[in-house]
Amino acid sequence: MAALLTGVLSSCEKAVAAKENPELMKVYGESEAELTAPPRVPRPVGKRAATKLVVNMEVVEKEMEMSDGVSYVYWTFDGTVPGSFIRTRVGDEIEFHLKNHPDSKLPHNIDLHAVTGPGGGAESSFVAPGREAVFTFKTMNPGLYVYHCATAPVGMHIANGMYGLILVEPEGGLPPVDKEYYVMQGDFYTEGENGERGLQAFDMNKAIDEDADYVVFNGKVGALTGENELTAKVGETVRLYVGNGGPNLVSSFHVIGEIFDKVHVEGGSQINENVQTTLIPAGGAAIVEFQVDVPGNLVLVDHSIFRAFNKGALGILKVEGEENEKVFGGKIEEKPYNPGVSSVEEVVEETEAVAEVHGSLAETMERGKTVYTQNCLACHQATGAGIPNAFPPLAKSDYLNDDVNRAISAVKYGLTGEIKVNGDIYNSAMPKQNISDQDIASVLTYVYNNWGNNKTEVTPEMVKEVK
Ligand SMILES: [Cu+2]
């Protein structure tokens, strides 16, 4: 026993592969693996010895939501995209049971990148609907690994959502942290364009062209926003297990407003420090860790940024707690800047976000801000200033302030042709925004109560009336 203990202690500084330590070729006892749906992860393995671990996983083909009003028939491991998170330690002997639900239309299998052996287990796990395949392997190398279906056509099975992560902890476990989450990016290819409503079929040609309609975290637009956002408290250390299922796109994973204190590069044993953006290849992973120091919403994105704001690769980590002005002072002043003008000219001041609002208006504003960030900001900009000659301003816009029904109509049905905003002509097209009447009301209320506009409150009933 003493010998075993020293063995454990001496090897825990460095993540050792099983074949470098004969002790790790033995296992003690047997248990069933705890599996979790994203964004949750199972309990840490801690200091437990290597064991025989039974993993039970079920392949399920089912229709789920891809985005508001858009659904898709996903192929899944355990009914979620990504599939269940599997947590093991180096030296475990895994007895993997892959069951294929009797209602499935196709056979499937699993290739785990944590397997040392042919196809990562693909052939040994190949299983028809209504059958169960059992195979075994030993976790030889610590790290964070992707698993995916590898049944032909492989790309199609991955594109439909068949991927997930398996963590192999080093001897002695990873250092404890306060919060751990499971996030996995994937790209999707649908017959309809992004936002086109209804049940959408897989589009093989777009997949071959790598022309994704959706790039998302955890299988759908909004899996990590609104009521699904991740949370942490000021002072806590957060560890994200981030994978990329692909099938095609690599992820420039970034958290807006944070710096990664540590990154387990490519999910392996090398730790990089003080990283802004980490590259996660298709079929790869990374472990990122950071302490949160100030309250606010941190935004998880693929920094190939149109994917974040236009295709869905955006999530929120909401941090609550005390402000810390030493770390972030916020805006302390704003004043006119007017170079080259000798006489004192009136400078249009940008009004700050509404001062004090209470009750349901405050809630509407909060919702409206989220809707604005996700749907309007890319064109009309964070300040509502728009972009000259391309996107008209919403700040102090006469077009907006003169006629609320006209503004509702623009958002509800889209707007094309010549319009005049504050004396400037725009002749462009704003696409119809595929959002609910409630969201149209919230976002317009947010716009009207910001940036010097006339403070109209728009209700869902008003939106409904506009035909
Ligand atoms: Cu499959």
From TrEMBL:
SUPFAM superfamilies: Cupredoxins, Cytochrome c. Its EC number is 1.7.2.1. Cu cation binds at H108, H113, H148, C149, H157, M162, H303. InterPro entries: Cu-oxidase-like_N, Cupredoxin, Cyt_c-like_dom, Cyt_c-like_dom_sf, Cytochrome_c-type_DH, NO2-reductase_Cu. The keyword Oxidoreductase applies. The keyword Disulfide bond does not apply. It catalyses: nitric oxide + Fe(III)-[cytochrome c] + H2O = Fe(II)-[cytochrome c] + nitrite + 2 H(+). Residues 363-451 form the Cytochrome c domain. It comes from the Bacteria. Its cofactor is Cu(2+); Cu(+). Belongs to the multicopper oxidase family. Homotrimer. This is Copper-containing nitrite reductase. It comes from Salinimicrobium marinum. The lineage of its organism: Bacteria, Pseudomonadati, Bacteroidota, Flavobacteriia, Flavobacteriales.
